[in-house]
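Duplicate of #3305? Posting structure anyway:
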């Protein structure tokens, strides 16, 4: 493996960024699966679902751009606009996980935890548990991180090879923090 990549990966800030991007992809994938399997699957419904997914992804990347180019608060306000127009609890929970990811990306771990907790209160899912764990770990609350990594582990379905890979990563993370399985 490339030595520079390994050195960069051993940097905790880079590793956190990789985890946030992975969590974002997991959230998007979860939304795709949820949208696909909820409701009737006629062509119009599938088109509406695809538009919703595209809109959600555009919104998140727009907020990331806004946070990077203007300010964190400006990026969060983009997400707040979407939150105000969300039509379902699932949409609101998804937006809160996106707000949490945005906060983690700029090192606002208390905000990240609070946004993930709101998502968790609305609709507990794997992404909200992972984001609560990552933000807790990042701000040094190891016991809370371990608890939330356990929650994430318990929410994994094991229906895919990716779940097995992610599950082992979480098991290793819990152990590295001094927790037990």
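Output from current build:
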């Amino acid at each position: 493996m490339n030595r520079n990549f390994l050195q960069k990966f051993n940097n905790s800030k880079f590793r956190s960024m990789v985890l946030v991007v992975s969590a974002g992809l997991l959230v998007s994938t979860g939304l795709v699966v949820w949208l696909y399997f909820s409701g009737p699957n006629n062509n119009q419904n599938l088109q509406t679902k695809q538009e919703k997914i595209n809109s959600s992804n555009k919104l998140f990347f727009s907020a990331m751009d806004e946070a990077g180019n203007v300010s964190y608060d400006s990026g969060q306000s983009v997400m707040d606009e979407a939150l105000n127009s969300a039509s379902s609890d699932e949409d609101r929970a998804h937006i809160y996980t996106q707000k949490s990811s945005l906060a983690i990306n700029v090192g606002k771990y208390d905000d990240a935890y609070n946004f993930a907790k709101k998502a968790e209160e609305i609709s507990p899912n794997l992404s909200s548990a992972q984001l609560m764990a990552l933000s807790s770990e990042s701000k040094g609350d190891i016991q809370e991180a371990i608890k939330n990594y356990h929650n994430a582990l318990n929410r994994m379905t094991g229906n895919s090879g990716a779940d097995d890979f992610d599950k082992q990563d979480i098991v290793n993370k819990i152990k590295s923090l001094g927790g037990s399985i």
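Confirmed duplicate; merging threads. The chain has one domain: 26-176. Residues 26-176 form a domain with the Serine Threonine Protein Phosphatase 5, Tetratricopeptide repeat fold (CATH 1.25.40.10).
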